[in-house]
Amino acid sequence: MIVIYGIKEYLNPIKARLSDVIQCAMSKSLSLPDDKRAHRFIPMNHDDFFFPGGRTAAYTVIEINMMEGRQIDTKKNLIKTLFKDIEAELGISPIDIEITIKEQPAHCWGFRGMTGDEARDLQYKVKM
Fold first, then answer.
1. pTM
2. pLDDT one-digit tens code per residue, 46-65
3. Are 33 and 27 in contact (CB under 8 A)?
4. Could you list the residue ranges that cross the membrane (predicted)?
């Protein structure tokens, strides 16, 4: 699951395109199928979204929640791909993008009535 935060006046108009860019990067970097898109947008009022100096109203936070197991280089590639593709497709400078990957053990995930460590039919690899 991916949670995206930003100032609503800036984030709302680009949500669909940003979701497409994020999903494409997930597919390229993690071989995640397109139908595994789970994006949650949190558009915020300017006075509820404090961010570091030197950033603009385009400042966007992307939190990626995933099962642990992927190689460090795989995760770094995902982050760099997101920076590059978001800038190329949406014109948001990397200085205005913050990305965090949060990993949890597979047994901490629940979907389709089971825990992640019980799933045997995933169409993508977690250990890569």
1. 0.86
2. 999 999 999 999 999 999 99
3. yes
4. none
For residues 71 and 127, what is the distance between their CA atoms, to the nearest angstrom? Answer: 7
Q: How many structural domains are present in the chain? A: 1
Q: Two tokens at 107?
A: 């047994």
**Contact of 63 with 14, CB cutoff 8 Å:** no
CATH code where residue 55 lies: 3.30.429.10
Domain range holding 110?
Answer: 2-118
Q: Hey, how many other C-beta atoms are within 10 angstroms of the C-beta on 64?
A: 21
Two structure tokens written together for 95: 């200085």
